[in-house]
Amino acid sequence: MPLAAFESRRDYGLGWAVAGQALTPFEDIADNPWGPMTEVRQTPVAGTETRIAIWDDAPAFHFALCDSMLDGKNWECCLRGFFKKALAALEAETGLTIASAFEHEFLLSGNDLPWIVPFSVEQIRYVAPFTADLTRALIAADVGVETVEPEYGVTQYEVSCAPAVGLAGADRAAITREVIREAARRRGFRASFTPKPTPTSVGNGAHVHFSLVDRKGANRTYDAAQPGGLSKVAQQFAAGVVAHMPEICALVAPSPVSYLRLGPHHWSCGYAAFGVQNREATIRACPSPNPKKRAEAFNLELRPPDATASPYMVLAALVFAGLEGIKREMPLPAMLDRDPADYSEAERRKLGIRALPSSLGEALDLMLASKIVCGWMPDTLRESYVAVKRKEIAMFAGATPEAMCKRYHDAY
Ligand code: GLU
Ligand code: MG
Predict the structure, then answer these.
(1) Is 246 in the pocket of ligand 1 (CB under 6 A)?
(2) Cα–Cα distance between 364 and 393 in angstroms, integer?
(3) Residue pLDDT, tens place only, 70-125
(4) Is 77 close to ligand 1, i.e. is its CB under 6 Å away?
(5) What is the CATH number of domain 3-68+79-411?
């Protein structure tokens, strides 16, 4: 809209036909209950307005995130609203909320990028005009950028931002991804966050670091005297997440291509397991190297998510699953100090380590078989989500993994 009209749009935003919720990432729309009827108002969220005016060859990149509002409330299928509900449930039960920070891994392509040694100085300096713009843009977007790094895939990079409390954690992730894409475009690259650029390449994860914080903002995740340094409430929360991980994979790793990334030995995670500094676990506890910040900086990392999942959906699933652990006072799972794939099947069974699903179809079946997970979502949200996901599965039923990777690479 013209900038002059923005003020007049603050309260009722713009209309949006809700069938759009049933769009796949491609050109198709899944069966949905709405058809041509019903619209929600995409209403700008105060504090998310982002304006980056550092380019001469394009207008300022200026946008705001929106809530999908219906009759003055979040529409039942609005994922930002879904995450709000999760936060409210956690707060009501414990008085706590969650602070979170995503790690954004992505692949650059275009501009005839040559093969470059991964993790190298060459990898970061070769694209220095891009990283310079990106860093400026992320600072302008006020997302708490901490690092812009080369990753261990060929032309793979990673951006990490500081944690933000509550809804802002997901808002920050959504903004950061769009800013990365824009900075890449302006320099003639494309940034893709697809979980698996090709069947054999290194995957792009969207790991989430999180901690439980109280109303004053104090971190309640740490207790030096407890196993792994996890406070009682954090142990229960982690237990709830690990126990439900196979059932929430469809929400946090939600694409057929996600299952080429998830799996043992990919540093993504193949098992529902827990460990301190264990990068093959579902939840990795991350102690601070700074003794003065042990309690303040202690956090847990959820490793299975990828960026084909909405950050709101990821955090809602995380919070609901963790809360389940708190309500049922679940004990901390076995603390693994090696790759869960290195145990025998019998040892894993004894330790209570379950494998994650190996396809989106299997993940959806597990989710739908869980009364608990289904209970978190309004029926319409669950049914329309599953319809989109089943459509994606059908689209690639006869495709080669290479062709599927290519489409997701281009779409995400
Ligand atoms: N790229 C890996 C993934 O797909 C993660 C590598 C890392 O530990 O940063 O999750
Ligand atoms: Mg990484």
Answers:
(1) no
(2) 11
(3) 999 999 999 999 999 999 999 999 999 999 999 999 999 999 999 999 999 999 99
(4) no
(5) 3.30.590.10
